[in-house]
Hints:
By secondary structure, the chain is mostly helical. Among the domains are: 56 residues, Orthogonal Bundle (Recoverin, domain 1), CATH 1.10.238.10; 65 residues, Recoverin, domain 1 (Orthogonal Bundle), CATH 1.10.238. 57% of the residues lie in helices and 0% in strands. The chain is built from 11 helices and no strands. The chain starts with a helix and ends with a helix.
Amino acid sequence: MRNNNMKLTFTVVVLLFSISLSAQGYRGGGQRVGRGQGGDQQRNKKPDATEIFSKLDTNGDGVIDKEEASNDERGKIAQDFDAIDTNSDELIDLEELKASLNDRKKPKKISAEKILKEVDDNKDGTLNELEVAAKDKRDLIKNFHEIDTNQDSELDLKELQIFYNKKGMSKRRKKDK
């Protein structure tokens, strides 16, 4: 008899324990911990530019500055800030963000203006070999004399534009073959 009571007590305890566990579900009120609603499905979904923009534009001025971009959980907006900021105004508007999300598969077009602004340490509007080497711009180092069509030992905006347009065209030709 005593053995039967122990079995019955054990069965009831296990049953109650099982019911209490199944009633709780996942931690956090039914959501998977660490993934938000939707779990794996959310992770594979393409991010929506408007949603991202509204989360990052914390001051509501209609643009994302570098400080706001640094609040991106994945860090991609801050990391790719200069590439997304196609007009080089140090701000990302909604259209730039949408374009960057839509153009992920397309190769990024290199902006001669952006390169000149980034590399031109003495702000004279041209790049010399020292500036190019200091910023480790290998494509410019390798092709410096070819790019410098007027042979003045400086790369100006027009020369850079010609070089990057040719470079872009040759990449497209390779892809088309």
